[in-house]
Amino acid sequence: MRITLSADDPIRSGADFLAVGVGSKNVARDPMVKKLDQAMGGSLLSHLKDEGFKGKLGQSLTMLGRGRLEARKLLLLGLGDEPKAATTQRLFAVRAARAAMGRPALSLVATGADPETLSLLAQGAVLGAYRYTRYLTGSRVPATPLKRVVIHVSKAPGRPERSAVSAATALGECVNLARDLINCPANDLTATELGRIASEQAKQAGVRCKVYDKKGIEKLGMPLLMAVNRGSSEEPRFIHMTHKPATRGAPRVVFVGKGLTFDSGGLCLKPADAMLDMKMDMGGAATTIGIVLAAARLKLPIEVHGVVASTDNMNGPDAYRPGDVFPSRKGKTVEIINTDAEGRLVLADALAYACELKPDYLIDHATLTGACLVALGKYRAGLFCNDEAMGRAYEKAAARSGEQFWQLPLDGDLRDQLKSRIADLKHTGTRYGGTITAALFLKEFVGDCRWAHLDIAGPAFLEKNHGIHPKGGTGFGILTAVEFLRSLLA
Ligand code: BES
Ligand code: MN
Ligand code: ZN
């Protein structure tokens, strides 16, 4: 998408849609509303009144330009009583881009001209224009995706404004790539395909990428990833991406992602309705890949690694069983309890590998537990952290990104549930505190690394649009991770 800044009068904009945000305080006296009303010969204010448009958050109103505006349609979007808030600004652009879907050109009127506001608008436009269209045919192929967005600012933009817009565009595109990966069905997005796309994208972004195939993984020593893969006719993949800046002494951050391209539950088979959306079980991997690509495209002076363990969880003749015991990369032996708790197994080996890279910070994203959904609902991710300062820093980053997390305890009292009679560890506990025992299991594999575990089982995939996120794959976590990385530079 091409996003440009313009100091031209929005009334002259010839876009298909001209989107204007209006706060709920005194709509009729809003300078932009007054100006538009004048251009439209007084018809706007009467229309506003007729329709009861009061600028409330979520309200919208369209009106044809009819030659009085150069734009084909005027779109007023209510911004509520906090029109300047970052989340409101970004959501304004998201809503405008969604409304403009099917038309190639959109003009946005910016209320502020600072790089921060412009970056929120650009990011919103890119995120709002997202649609997953790969499998649509015939008349359902979108005729014209939104291609050009002009952001109207009150004064001529300079270098900082333009670079804020291009960085935000790049970041939005990385989120959209993650969404594409999540939305792609499991018959097409196999672990092999995920590895192929990761290396293709890495190449374009100047990121190093090593993809291990089944033999390579065996050699590398990932017994738990191999165990989960046993029931599958597809090969697993282990992906390691690296963004290495030229700066010396840059902090090193390693991200790890759960890459289950499909989770049937294995022998402990899921019921049909719980299985339906399980193509999304590689949401953590998609987010991890998106983060590394974003770090590269934003040229962050931070060494950022992305480590992904990918397979599907199936029930072929050689599938792993409850009661089986496997070694792990770290050396601890694990007794399998429920083959549907596969995510923590592949993560255990990936986390052990990640720790060997000696990161300053280790962060995993995983659609790990249904229990996290029970605890926090669909829209909020669980945050676990073994370092107080890091946990706080992550919460702060989330407050800036607008993504919602909630910190949960790595409650030592529940650790007993993971005691096994015949192995070092059982891999699941009871139903109560299931998201915590999953995190406690992972903790066994991170040693003394400074580590955060993000259970994104809820927000990675949605049944309906919510805020900036569309129905389906969301790419949740990328925006916060990038904010966290930026906070390391401050
Ligand atoms: N991928 C699921 C978790 C999940 C559930 C993600 C719903 C998104 C939506 C995970 O592999 C799983 O099946 N977890 C089990 C663990 C249990 C067997 C201990 C669960 O949460 O039921
Ligand atoms: Mn599972
Ligand atoms: Zn899973």
Which helices and strands appear, and what pairs or packs with what?
Elements: E1 2-6, E2 17-23, H1 31-39, H2 43-51, E3 60-64, E4 73-80, H3 86-99, E5 105-109, H4 115-128, E6 148-152, H5 159-183, H6 191-205, E7 208-212, H7 214-220, H8 223-229, E8 237-243, E9 252-263, H9 272-275, H10 283-297, E10 303-313, E11 325-326, E12 334-335, H11 343-356, E13 361-366, H12 370-376, E14 380-385, H13 388-401, E15 404-407, E16 425-426, H14 434-443, E17 451-455, E18 461-462, E19 472-473, H15 478-487
Parallel strand pairs: 1-6, 2-4, 2-5, 5-6, 9-10, 9-13, 12-16, 13-17, 14-15
Antiparallel strand pairs: 3-4, 7-8, 8-10, 11-12, 14-17, 18-19
The chain binds ligand BES, manganese (II) ion and zinc ion.
The site of zinc ion has 5 residues, from strand 9.
